[in-house]
Every structure is written in structure tokens, then in C-alpha cells.
Amino acid sequence: MVLQLMSGIEAPADRLSAWYVGPNQWNLPWLPERTVSTIVAVAAICAGEALRKRPAFDSPQWDQIHFGAAALGLSAQGLAKILNIHCPIPALRVPTRAGAWIPPGGNR
Known about the structure:
Structural class: alpha+beta
Distance between the termini: 49 Å
Number of strands: 4
Shape: elongated
Largest sheet: 4 strands, antiparallel
Oligomer: single chain
Number of helices: 3
Low-confidence stretches: none
Radius of gyration: 16 Å
Strand content: 5-15%
């Protein structure tokens, strides 16, 4: 049995993909010598797809990109480098509760 996960927005030659190699194991051709779980493969493909769109600096898509990159053990900058994408990348936003008080120096 041959299974492949593929992104759906680019031309076939430009799609990100992952190949099934065993139970809950996928290889990412664009990230050689890495075998990842199904959820990591999906997160990585979605993050790469979102990154290729080069979202606006304040776009909520950056959360998805940071999450997918982190699932691979990378930063968003590291994922961009692997995919040869050059664009400004905002820092990961840390959610806070509305009205929460953070003492000076307490956000480290």
C-alpha cells in the first residue's frame, strides 16, 4: 500500500508531501532522513503551505506556522530556511488572559 499526504494549493511539482512508511510513520521528502508521526506530518505540511503564502506580519496564520515548525523541532525561521522562503517572520505570540497583570520582568 502506498499513501501520500500532499498540500493542495500549489502546482503538483511544488506541493509539500509526506510518504507513508509504516504505522503512524511518515517521511518528508523535503526534510530528508526524518520519520515523523501522522500528526506531525500534517502539521508540518500545513505550516509549510501557510509559510509559502507569506502571510502579513500580523496574520493569525503565524501561530499555525510556529506550531508546525515546533512539531518538527524547528523554529519558523528554520522551516523557512529549509523551504527557501525569504520573508519577515514575527516572534511567536504568547497568549495572555485579558486583564492579567504581568509584573515587570515577569514575562521571561
